[in-house]
Structures are given as C-alpha cells and as structure tokens.
Write a structure and sequence with these properties.
10 helices, 34% strand, 26% helix, 9-stranded mixed beta sheet, metal ion binding, 2,3-Dihydroxybiphenyl 1,2-Dioxygenase, domain 1, tyrosine catabolism, alpha+beta, globular, 2 domains, 4-hydroxyphenylpyruvate dioxygenase
Length: 382
C-alpha cells in the first residue's frame, strides 16, 4: 500500500466538514428503513411523505448516533422519472452522499470553474427552525453529492420533515449496536475508470490522495483490485475509489458493476469503539456477515507473535465472530463485512474499529476476496 502526505494547496474558500447523510433510492422505503432499524440498531428519526405535503416521494429517515440514512421511494408509477429509471437500472442503492460544508458559495464556484456538472445549483429550504442552503453535483455513475450549509438552521435534520413515529417496542427490546459515525464510503468503477474518478475529486472538490493499493499487492487466484482513497483537506471525509483488475474469473468489483449497471457506492463503513460488542449484538438481531475461514486466524496468530503491536482483544472471540485484523508497526484495525443488503449482489456494509491505524484493511483484502468469492460461487457468478 502507499500513503500520501501531500495535501496539495489549501482551498481558497469553503471547507468540507463531514459526511452529513446518505440517501438510498429503494423500491419500498418504509420496509427498508424498518430493516435497518431491526437488524442494525438504527431508530426512526424523521419522515416526509403524503402527510407532510410531499406528493411524489416518501422519505423515511433513520439515525444512529451521527449516522443518518434516508430511504426514498416513489409514490406514483414512474414518477419522478429519474427515480423510476434509477431503480430499474440499479435496484436499491445509494443515490446521494451528502457532505456538510462551510461557505457553500465558494465550493460551488470552484466546482463550476473547474467543469463539474452541477445537477442543482444553490437552493434554499426553510421552515420555522431556519434555512438550509444546498447544491448538488454529479460524481461517478448516477451518484450525486449534495453539499449542505446548516449554519442558519437549528432543526434536527432538514426543513419540512417531521419527527418519525417511534412506538416500535423492538427499539427498546433489542440490544444497542454502538455504531457511531461513517468512517468511509467506497465507490466501485468499471475497469480503467478509477483514475478519472480520482481526478474528478482532485480537480472539482480539491480533495487529495490519502492511500492506495494496486493489483500487484492485492489479488487472489481469481480476482484483484486497484484502490485509491481521496479525502478533503482536513481529512474528515474518506472516499475509497475501486476498480477491478483482470483475473481468471469475474472479480467481486466486476460483479458489482455488472449487477448495478455501472459505477456506484459499493459499501459504507461505520465506526464503533467496541466491535466485539457491536457485532455480538448485530448478530443477535439477525444481521448476516461474511464468514472467514479458520486458516486466516491460524496465520494471524503466527504473524502476531513477531509483530511490534499487541492486539488487546481476545483472538478466540474475534474468530468466533469472523472479525478481521489488519496492523502495522503503529497500530491495528478490526473490521467485518455484512452480506449483501439486497437481492442484487451490490451494496453491503462494514463495521470498523481503529486502534491508531488509518489504513483500510489491505492486509485483509485477500481473505475478504476469498470470502466474497465463496458467496459468488454459491450465486454462480465466480
């Protein structure tokens, strides 16, 4: 892997603060939101639909600590047309990754000057709690980024949403999962699409390269990938960009591109401070994860004997829960990946805990590939 220390010039104006929320376009927003609450420990947060005056789209918003997911569905056949075509082509998936920003005008001005496609220029939405200013730009595939300035808004989410009904007894009966905030969001590209996408972030949003690996470093017998992580100047938003590399069989990146119909968000990584407790409780809720072979943990135990760092968690428990470990001389991370979150083999989720380690699990990619390939073989897609 390669780490990058050159941030490039500091943007003259504007600042990216953090991930704000992620919007999914799905066939049934009510059920998707309920699934994330039941299986993943989110809680109903906000709602917008027919009852609030939204005639075309229903929006169910769920929240867990700083993670906010918005599930949206059409209310009429084939309206809105762009949502209808998106669902037909991609199935359920991420439409928009929103960032909270400061000085929206400066960011949009720079993006326009550098040739970014502005899907919707700066607009305002208001209610009795103030005004939110927003703009949307096109990134890879059909995915967009909404840039949000909340500096003049005191409400809990966005204008014209109302609090969701929270009388579901499962919210209090099931164990808390302790997911804190979004760590990173990964975008898959078709073969040879990665560099152009990375350049788009560097040019239009003034992000810089943070970390990368190539197919010489990461491959199995059947598949390989290349990945470059881009981030904002303050390094509070991490966006890994992947592409497949040629292999003997269809790689899991290519499988995603084929079933999604092009580039899109492959997975969302969510941070926890106690992954053992989080995964134990997620499993108790019925969430399914990839299974890691026992050989991985035998090799890990041998390698850790000579490592400069010490993993404080019980390796027997990590193995039982199928949690992966990656490390260097300074620290380590723990991570695990869900099975696909819908019938199409496209979007999945990650849970990650960091111990002074800012990588993305390069040491685990081979084992992760092999676990995904086992699932691919079962689907008949390897």
């Amino acid at each position: 892997m390669t780490s990058y220390t050159d941030k490039g010039p500091k943007p003259e104006g504007g600042r990216f603060l953090s991930f704000d929320h992620v919007t999914f376009w799905v066939g049934n927003a009510k059920q998707a939101a309920s699934y994330y609450c039941t299986r993943l420990g989110f809680e109903p947060f906000m709602y917008r639909g027919l009852e609030t005056g939204s005639r075309n789209v229903a929006s169910h918003v769920v929240k867990q600590n700083k993670i906010i997911y918005v599930f949206q569905s059409m209310l009429e056949p084939d309206k809105p047309a762009d949502m209808a075509s998106h669902l037909t082509k991609h199935g359920d998936g991420v439409k928009d990754v929103a960032f909270e920003v400061e000085d929206l005008d400066a960011i949009v001005k720079i993006a326009k000057e550098r040739g970014a496609k502005v899907v919707k220029d700066i607009w305002e939405e208001s209610d009795e709690q103030g005004t939110v200013r927003m703009a949307s730009v096109q990134t890879y595939g059909d995915t967009t980024h909404t840039l949000i300035d909340r500096s003049k808004y005191t409400g809990p989410f966005l204008p014209n949403y109302r609090p969701a009904q929270t009388n579901d007894p499962l919210v209090t009966l099931l164990p808390s999962t302790g997911l804190l905030h979004i760590d990173h969001i990964v975008g898959n590209q078709p073969d040879l699409g990665m560099n152009d996408t990375v350049h788009w972030y560097e040019k239009n949003l003034m992000f810089h390269r943070f970390w990368s690996v190539d197919d010489k470093q990461l491959s199995t017998e059947f598949s390989a990938l290349r990945s470059i992580v881009v981030t904002n100047f303050e390094e509070t938003i991490k966006m890994p960009i992947n592409e497949p590399a040629p292999g003997k069989r269809k790689s899991q990146i290519q499988e995603y591109v084929d079933y999604y119909g092009g580039a899109g968000v492959q997975h969302i990584a969510m941070r926890t401070n106690n992954i053992i407790e989080s995964i134990s409780n997620l499993r108790a809720r019925g969430q399914q994860f990839l299974e890691i072979p026992a050989t991985y943990y035998r090799t890990l135990r041998e390698n850790l004997k000579n490592a400069k760092i010490k993993v404080t968690e019980d390796l027997d428990v990590l193995q039982k829960l199928h949690i992966l470990v990656d490390y260097d001389d300074e620290g380590y991370l723990l991570q695990i990946f869900t099975k696909n979150m819908q019938d199409r083999p496209t979007l999945f989720l990650e849970v990650i805990q960091r111990h002074n380690h800012q990588g993305f699990g390069a040491g685990n990619f081979k084992s992760l590939f092999e676990a995904i390939e086992a699932d691919q073989a079962e689907r008949g897609n390897l």
